[in-house]
Hints:
The protein is α/β, with parallel strands linked by helices. The protein has helices at 49-59, 77-80, 83-90, 101-105, 107-113, 119-122, 188-199, 218-240, 249-260, 269-279; strands at 7-19, 22-34, 39-42, 67-71, 93-97, 131-133, 138-142, 145-151, 160-164, 169-173, 206-209, 215-216.
Amino acid sequence: MKITNKIHALKHTFFIPVNPKLKLERFVYSFVIFGKNNVYLVDSGVADSENTIQNYIQKNGYSINNIKALILTHSHPDHIGSAKNIKEKSGCQVLAHEGEKEWIENIEKQFSDRPVPGFKSFISKSVKIDRLVKRNDHIKLEEDIALKVIHTPGHSKGSISLLIENKGVLICADCLLLPGNLPIYEDAVEAIHSINKLKEIKNIKWLLSSWDDPSSGNQISINFNQSLSYFKAIHKSIVDIEKAEELSPIDLYKQVIEKMGLPSVAINPLVAKSFQSNIVNLDNPVLK
Ligand SMILES: [Zn+2]
């Protein structure tokens, strides 16, 4: 999908194995920025997405060799799945925040720390970061293309959002929660601070989330507010559970999922872990 002539959103469909008989269809977006002669990518989709990316940029008159940089918003497998193959094919530089370095450069470590269902099918290889970025960096890609790095922890500690100021385009990756979707975050308080930080940015014409279709106009503030409300509704349901802090993570997970009417196809350890960040912040006013 064309966001502007030069900034495109590319949808990658994949399947999450829930159990041997059930696979859930999902999608994740990566983003392509076409420069004068070069191409820049933000995230790389799941494993094997390099073919989709290659075909897409060829259709637009560029080749894989034109990819000069791949900026990873964070280390999760659906964002870095084909990073190594893209780097090998194109020789591009890989950029990411220091907080994500360990899991990007060592996927075995990520898998043992965060065993997502289907992990090994989403990503096959670690990739080395060539340049670490930090908050407020300006990644100057070309004369008229620069990405401002906004550190937006919460979903993960080194998650970044990227602002293309002169086009009014904000890439927020996995910062926002989608109401009704299973919520995945490491730190609920940080996540809310990050959304509030993004909300303050003026003159955003397009908001690009990885797990949602691109939004524009009034829908942008609606999305921010819905996400904040969802975080707070989750927290309220946890606060309302009697002695929630004494429950095991799995028992808490089951009660919250039931209370909120969320899909309960299988126990998701990542969501159970997310709720534990509410438990250690039960009285935090940011979450109320
Ligand atoms: Zn993620």
